[in-house]
Design brief:
heterotrimer; A mainly alpha (about 140); B mainly alpha (about 575); C mainly alpha (about 190); A: about 140 residues; mainly alpha; C: about 190 residues; Four Helix Bundle (Hemerythrin (Met), subunit A); 7 helices; elongated
């Protein structure tokens, strides 16, 4: 282990990439991610929305947070916490996403197009929104 | 290259003025004082948690009796007592004493640093912890009383005031736990960074004493597992107070989600408190067996393996909650798997003892007691880990006894082992060995007499969380066993007086302790007892691993880490 | 104020203490947001009818706020560069731009939430909105904490003090930005 003090560590200067270029790329990606869903094609929406989010996040983490030149274990640490979240998702999703458990049901999960509201006023509001006609076919998409 | 403190830098406040009571005891940033604050707060909360246990055990053994110092226990009070007994013992006793107090005290001293890396963050961490304890204690006095829906605070009992009957108590309970998490997150970052960055020159990764490794790994586990529950606590608070329905199936939420969020933290939490206790035991048995720790690296890898596995077992707490049976299979397998590394750790400790020149001092007795009792806890866990068998045993006293056979060794025996071992360093005086041994036997024997009968009751089908068993014809016949367990509890409690007498008498009147009373190797024994502010006049340099005992060809049977070859 | 302990100045792990601690902080934040968002995604995938609720969120406002945060991140990294060159006042100026970005974000968010609440979409009206307000609110709290710390550091940086902190708050700020990069599609775009 090195006995280096903080000063000498700080001296290894960060190589600064061209931040303006990265910033412009990020903005272009943002525009694409907003325009993509306007085509109203589900797969393109998902790709542009989440695919681009991953790319943007990668650019920020690599170039702004400098994870590429930080010690390797920092990247591992971040990856570990993400993997644990995936693990949590994998363990919990089979139960939470099932509309009826073994001994109880979540009846309102199965009804589509119904606004589940705390008070009736809001229910009325939700129902006259433009979502009603879409609600039905989205539900079909998700059912398989 | 030993680092010295430059004379012109005013590192210590007291160089300029006498420290006042407040700056020395209350607002200190010194890691040793913060450790003491955590420890005494933990002991105080432990007394409260113990008193709760006393009250509800009296109710179970002698239903309806007027409990001395408490009065008649009403059903709702009974629920509040067991709920808060559980929460206090885990979150306000085991966590502060094992992680925070030991971590704060030992990490800088054992790695040869003058303090934690962020002393003021450290102080803030304790202060938030103190606030969390006060919030919890305050919840007993609000209208409706303290929360009474079990320490796992499952919704809907915790989220709906009509069910819990404690509208304010349940919110305060959640707030207190969330604050406690915030405190330990700060403390954990401090511990990890200190151990990673501030080791003495020459101290390589494999020269770090095991207890420091264990506390650091425990902090990492805590940090990576608690996040979902912090999010969950926020969601639960909103369910309680803002009318959301995250956990309410009638309005599209899901109570099982809470159980996942809770146990994703709750199971690693078991290892968060277990690992420091395992580390303490490793330090003690090497010193008093005068032997090198058997297979240092294997222990370390075992700990890492346990840590990773501990994230994959959480749903074994939910086998009867209506979870997907296929997932139950998966979690059964991982649960049984995790007993492998821990069994290995036990064997490694026994191998360390093998052939050593063992001296049965009080700390050594506690360490051996830990191994023996924790073993029973671990073995009974295997029954519960099998999803089929758990259907019968779930929520019986078998679970409860298993759980106490793991947590009592961890939190109580681990604490006594640590305090009797490091007392000379902490307070500069020796404890009384004879009283220590009386206390040991007076604790360990009644402990087994309390909980072995509870295994029997559990197998007979006795459910937890029942206020008065005499109303159940099938269970009423077992009343003598309950009385026996309660009387054992009273005996055990009365022997704790011996400890407190010994503790406070030794603190003020015990014989002065030398620097290294146990002839141990690790760095904390190379400074004064108690260590001054800044720990060493000249910070040490490390030349070898922490467990070089009975090295052949040396005159003395120990070889301090800082001694040049 | 007492000087730092020697422990703080050591770096056996090959990284300055502060930077190491910020990364651990971020790891702990990943699991907090991760737990919340994992819960949201589970619910969202199982409730397709939430899309009609999500349709009421304003993509334009969300996109504008993304733009604001990206820009403020850009200034934060320029501040880091200036601080590394030893130019405290320049770093402080960039930090104040970042501060302005964070403040704009919060102002836009308040406007957005006010509109939505006035239209009847409150935190209790539907579990989608509960997640919407909880996730965005938790994120907004981080923005708020961030700009307060940025202000404190900018004041010191102007006097060329504690310049290494400019990098530390930058890392944190970029993390807050990254969280928003994921919240934006989750809450706004996916309808």
């Amino acid at each position: 282990m090195s006995d280096a003090t903080a000063e000498s560590v700080a001296e290894e200067h960060v190589h600064h990439p061209n931040y303006t270029r990265i910033y412009v790329i990020l903005l272009v990606l943002l525009v694409i991610s907003v325009l993509g869903p306007m085509l109203e094609i589900r797969i393109i929406t998902l790709l542009t929305a989440f695919g681009i989010a991953v790319v943007k996040a990668y650019l920020v983490v690599k170039n702004f947070m400098h994870i590429d030149i930080a010690k390797r274990y920092i990247a591992y640490l971040g990856a570990t916490s993400l993997v644990f979240m995936l693990l949590f998702f994998a363990g919990a999703a089979p139960d939470v996403m099932k509309p009826d458990g073994s001994n109880w049901e979540k009846p309102l999960w199965q009804q589509t197009g119904v606004d589940i509201t705390a008070n009736p006023e809001h229910a009325a509001h939700g129902e006259d929104g433009h979502g009603d006609e879409h609600g039905e076919d989205h539900a079909e998409d998700g059912s398989h | 290259m030993a680092q010295t403190i430059p004379a012109d830098v005013p590192v210590h406040d007291e160089a300029h003025h006498e420290e006042s009571f407040w700056s020395h005891y209350v607002f200190s940033t010194d890691h040793k004082m913060i450790a003491m604050q955590y420890m005494f707060t933990g002991i105080f909360m432990g007394l409260i948690g113990g008193f709760f246990a006393y009250a509800f055990r009296m109710q179970l053994a002698f239903p309806g009796v007027e409990v001395p110092l408490f009065g008649v226990v009403s059903p709702n009070e009974y629920n509040a007592l067991i709920t808060n007994h559980g929460a206090i013992m885990i979150f306000w006793v085991a966590m502060p004493v094992l992680i925070a107090a030991l971590g704060n005290y030992l990490i800088p001293l054992m790695i040869g640093a003058d303090d934690m890396v962020f002393p003021r963050l450290n102080r803030l961490s304790y202060q938030i912890f103190l606030v969390s304890a006060i919030v919890l204690l305050a919840s007993f006095f609000v209208p409706g009383g303290g929360f009474a829906g079990a320490w796992t605070f499952y919704p809907p009992l915790s989220s709906t005031a009509e069910y819990s009957l404690t509208p304010l108590g349940s919110s305060l309970f959640v707030v207190a736990i969330a604050l406690e998490f915030a405190a330990f997150l700060m403390g954990g970052i401090n511990f990890i960074v200190t151990a990673m960055n501030s080791r003495a020159p020459g101290m390589k990764l494999y020269d770090i004493p095991m207890v420091v490794w264990m506390i650091v790994v425990a902090s990492v586990l805590f940090m990576l597992s608690v996040g979902p529950l912090i999010a969950g606590a926020v969601m639960l608070l909103f369910d309680q107070n803002l009318g959301t329905a995250f956990f309410n199936p009638e309005r599209g939420g899901d109570p099982i989600l809470w159980q996942h969020l809770f146990w994703f933290f709750g199971h690693p939490e078991v290892y968060v408190v277990l690992l420091p206790a395992l580390g303490v035991v490793a330090e003690i048995i090497t010193v008093f067996a005068r032997k090198k720790l058997f297979a240092y690296r294997t222990v370390l890898y075992t700990v890492f393996g346990t840590g990773v596995l501990s994230f994959t077992v959480w749903a074994h707490h939910q086998f009867v909650a209506g979870i997907d049976p296929r997932m139950a299979h998966v979690f059964t397998v991982t649960t049984l798997l995790i007993s492998v590394p821990l069994a290995e750790a036990m064997f490694v400790y026994i191998a360390t003892l093998y052939g050593g020149s063992i001296s049965l001092t009080t700390p050594m007795l506690w360490a051996l007691g830990f191994i023996a009792t924790f073993l029973i806890g671990g073995v009974t866990g295997i029954f519960l880990g099998a999803s089929g068998e758990d259907i019968y045993l779930h929520d019986t006293y078998f679970v409860l006894a298993h759980f106490h056979y793991t947590f009592f060794p961890i939190a109580i025996i681990g604490f006594y082992a640590a305090i009797t071992f490091w007392f000379p360093k902490m307070f500069g005086r020796m404890m009384d060995e004879r009283l220590g041994k009386i206390h040991f036997w007076g604790t360990i024997i009644p402990f087994n007499f309390i909980f072995i009968p509870l295994f029997v009751l559990g197998l007979a089908g006795q459910h937890r969380r029942i206020y008065d068993f005499t109303n159940y014809p099938d269970l009423a016949a077992y009343q003598p066993i309950r009385v026996f367990a309660t009387i054992s509890l009273l005996v055990m409690f009365s022997f704790q007086l011996v400890f407190f007498y010994n503790f406070f008498k030794s603190m003020f009147r015990g014989p002065k302790a030398p620097k290294n009373p146990w002839q141990a190797n690790t760095l904390e024994w190379t400074t004064e007892s108690p260590p001054p502010h800044g720990n060493w006049k000249e910070l040490p340099t490390v030349h070898r691993g922490p467990y070089e005992y009975s090295v052949e060809g040396r005159e003395s049977d120990y070889w301090p880490q800082n001694e040049p070859a | 104020m007492s000087a730092r302990p020697i422990a703080t100045t050591r770096s056996a792990a090959g990284m300055p203490t502060g930077r190491l601690a910020v990364w651990w902080l971020i790891a702990s934040e990943i699991v907090i947001f991760g737990g919340l968002l994992a819960s949201y995604i589970m619910f969202r995938l199982a409730h397709d009818m939430w899309s009609e609720q999500a349709a009421h969120t304003s993509t334009a406002i969300g996109a504008f706020n993304t733009f604001v945060l990206l820009t403020s991140s850009y200034f934060a990294v320029l501040g880091h560069k200036a601080a590394e060159e030893g130019d405290g006042p320049k770093a402080a100026r960039y930090l104040w731009y970042t501060f302005a970005g964070g403040a704009t974000f919060l102002a836009v968010k308040s406007y957005e939430w006010t509109t939505e609440i006035l239209h009847g979409y409150t935190i209790a009206s539907n579990t989608f909105w509960s997640f919407y307000y909880t996730a965005a609110g938790l994120h907004a709290l981080h923005v708020l904490a961030g700009i307060i710390i940025i202000a404190i550091i900018a004041v010191a940086a102007r006097r060329n003090e504690e310049l290494h902190r400019v990098e530390l708050i930058g890392i944190y700020w970029h993390f807050v930005d990254v969280v928003w990069i994921f919240l934006f599609p989750l809450l706004y775009i996916a309808k």
